[in-house]
Design goal:
single chain; 395 residues; alpha/beta; TIM Barrel; 2 domains; 8-stranded mixed sheet; 7-stranded parallel sheet; 17 strands; binds iron/sulfur cluster
Length: 395
């Protein structure tokens, strides 16, 4: 067995195709055996799925299912057995990437991981959700951000394809609540804090805070967090159609105080598709806000939904979206994320699609749409990547 320590995390390699991951506090965060992959989030959701066998390609639309009940008990039991074997392996356990002091740190980590029972994971998840709530999503380049909740939920909350924040009411948090949360998070992550190298201001409408509050929050983050946590900057979503445009000067002030990138749900630039989605984006306002943000030094990431417009509106969606994005003069620091539709259960999407005579596309058709978007955006200036919502876990 090999225990590898890196940035406060430990990776225990049991065999060529079996590994177990612990965070810096000894929390079990994931393990795989063969093609079976189990992952845990800080809000204590467990997912089981598969990873490709050696030499095979990962299928993007593989859905990972919830792991619960007896199945979860069994998985925790197996992981604990492995940890027990590793901690009593003596010289047969090789600790790599470490000096002598870290060797003992590695053993300490294994011992503390052994103490975790199912109830401990549940208690730990509750501490986390009491601090920031359940985290439904993060952009793919921000999975390892420190999530700081400054504005709960989504102010709009009515897009037909989205049910991410339907379980919560919208409200802006007070500065004192945010400060309490930052301190709580420092305690919660403990030695695992080293894995967080940027901050994400959640939930979906972070910029709805007043300028004065936002600047105060950014100041508190700088004062209270180690520079390593702020190394890759501060980020947030922007719901352009709900936010009163900020003057350029205010955007510059946010940038000077650490705001590095804003993430905007474009979804589509085709009016017919946006109307079906019930998303009141205006392309003119969006364009102005993007140009303003970039002038202020803040980079932009735009999310495009793939597969939601059905076959009937698909070419309109692709044409308008590619044309709009290509005219934005995006640069190297900007991003475009292509996100396949995850059919929501509780928004009436299927019934509305039927009413509009739109067929639901299958995963292969959605992949084709993504390929067409990629081709159209090949010289847009920004990096274009995939954004998979369905298997997201905050870990
Ligand atoms: S897509 Fe964005 S704006 Fe629309 S409901 Fe979801 S979070 Fe809110």
């Amino acid at each position: 067995m090999i225990l590898q320590l890196k940035n406060g995390e430990a990776n225990l390699q049991i065999s060529e195709d079996s590994q177990l991951l612990l965070d810096g506090q000894g929390r079990l965060m994931g393990f795989y055996e063969g093609t079976k992959l189990i992952r845990r989030s800080y809000d204590n959701r467990w997912l089981i799925g598969s990873r490709p066998a050696r030499g095979e390609r990962q299928q993007r639309h593989t859905t990972h299912k919830k792991l619960e009940g007896d199945e979860l008990d069994l998985a925790i039991h197996r992981a604990r057995e492995t940890l027990r074997q590793a901690s009593s392996s003596g010289p047969r356990l090789q600790i790599v990437g470490s000096d002598e002091a870290q060797n003992s740190q590695g053993m300490d980590l294994l011992r503390s991981a052994l103490k975790w029972q199912r109830a401990d994971f549940e208690g730990d998840g509750k501490i986390f959700t009491d601090l920031v709530g359940r985290i439904p999503v993060l952009p793919p380049d921000r999975y390892r951000s420190l999530y700081v909740l400054i504005s709960q939920g989504c102010r709009y909350n009515r897009c037909l394809f989205c049910e991410l924040y339907r379980d919560r009411d919208f409200r802006n948090l007070d500065l004192s609540e945010v400060i309490q949360q930052i301190e709580g998070l420092r305690g919660f992550f403990g030695k695992a804090f080293r894995t967080r190298t940027s901050v994400f201001l959640g939930d979906a409408s972070g910029l709805s805070q007043s300028q004065e509050n936002l600047v105060a929050i950014l100041n508190e983050l700088r004062e209270r967090l180690p520079s390593s946590t702020l190394r890759d900057g501060i980020h947030t979503f922007m719901d352009v159609f709900m936010t009163d445009p900020r003057p350029l000067q205010e955007m510059k002030e946010l940038h000077q105080n650490g705001l590095k990138r804003i993430y905007i749900g474009l979804e589509s630039a085709a009016p017919s598709v946006l109307s079906f989605y019930k998303k009141p984006n205006s392309m003119g306002v969006l364009r102005d806000e993007i140009f303003k943000a970039r002038e202020a030094g803040i980079s932009c990431a735009l999310m495009v939904l793939a597969g939601g417009s059905g076959r009937r509106l698909q070419s309109e969606h692709i044409d308008h979206t590619v044309r709009f994005l290509n005219r934005l003069q995006l640069g190297k620091s900007d991003r475009i994320f292509l996100s396949p539709l995850v059919l929501p259960e509780g928004t009436g999407f299927r019934a509305e699609a039927k009413k509009h005579n739109l067929e639901i596309l299958n995963p292969n058709e959605i992949e084709e749409e993504i390929r067409a978007l990629r081709t159209g955006l090949s010289s847009c200036g920004a990096k274009v990547s995939h954004y998979e919502l369905r298997n997201f876990l905050y870990r």
